[in-house]
Amino acid sequence: MKKTGKQIFIILAVIMCFNGSLFAKNNKESNMSLTVKQQSIIPIATYTARGELKQLKQALNTGLEAGLTVNEIKEIMVHLYAYCGFPRSIRGLQTFMEVLQEREAKGIKDETGADASPLNDHRSKYDRGKANLETLVGRPLDGPQSGYAAFTPAIEIFLKEHLFADIFDRDVLTFAERELVTISVISAIGKADPMLRSHLAICLNVGYTPRQLEEFVGIIQSTVGKKEARAAKEVLSEVLEVRQ
User: Carboxymuconolactone decarboxylase-like domain location, by residue (predicted)?
Assistant: First the structure.
């Protein structure tokens, strides 16, 4: 049966509405999941923290293919040393050098990416670090020190001046990406629940959704193990319960 121009127009309109709804649904779902780039950060951080260099090589290749630049991966290694030490960080960097050499020998040209921007902030390192930490936790930190900070004031100064100023002021990675590295390392090394609890809460503050953090736990299970994933899931459940 021959369709009239009006009928054809109606059919096309219905198809376009359906496709538009489907696109909106798929786009909403994709926004609720970690991006491929974010997903690739997690195994790089976990394998480096655990010194599993064979697995790290594959994770580094996957990360480069997912769109991480050379400088972003370097920065992941720089950031995580604050949580698992120089030995793991340096072994990770050495492994990354090997990967880049192997890829170059195959004719693969990887994007270098941006360097850290020059810092134009004349505040003291302590004040810069304090401001960055306040942004992360979402509240002012003007009260008296307590806990480990009161017990050993030097480490509180080192944290603010070095970790949250020297490192967090480097804009090669966003605060959100840095926190993803942090929770990956803490989950990988294990037995640091109070710190993991704090940083999972920060992850919610910097924009990650509960679903994305649950996806993170799933990646921990596939890269580190069921025991570590179960521990991370328990801490995440506590954090989400407090937020409700």
Answer: 32-92, 158-237
- Residue 28's pLDDT is what? 44
Q: Token pair for residue 121?
A: 């902030």
User: Domain span at residue 209?
Assistant: 36-111+171-243
- Give the C-alpha distances (Å, rounded to integers) separating 239 from 25, 193, 221: 28, 11, 19
143 belongs to a structural domain: no
Q: Report pLDDT for 135.
A: 97
Average pLDDT, the chain: 90
Q: Is residue 140 a part of any domain in this protein?
A: no
Report the alpha-carbon distance of residue 72 to residue 95 in Å, rounded: 15
- What's the whole-model pTM score? 0.87
70-101 pLDDT, tens digit per residue, is 999 999 999 999 999 999 999 999 999 999 99
Residue 78 to residue 192: CA distance in whole angstroms: 20
Centroid of chain to Cα 42: 7
**Count of Cβ atoms closer than 10 Å to residue 19 Cβ:** 10
- Give the CA angle between residues 113, 118, 119 to the nearest 5°: 130
Give 107's Cβ-side CA count (13 Å radius).
Answer: 0
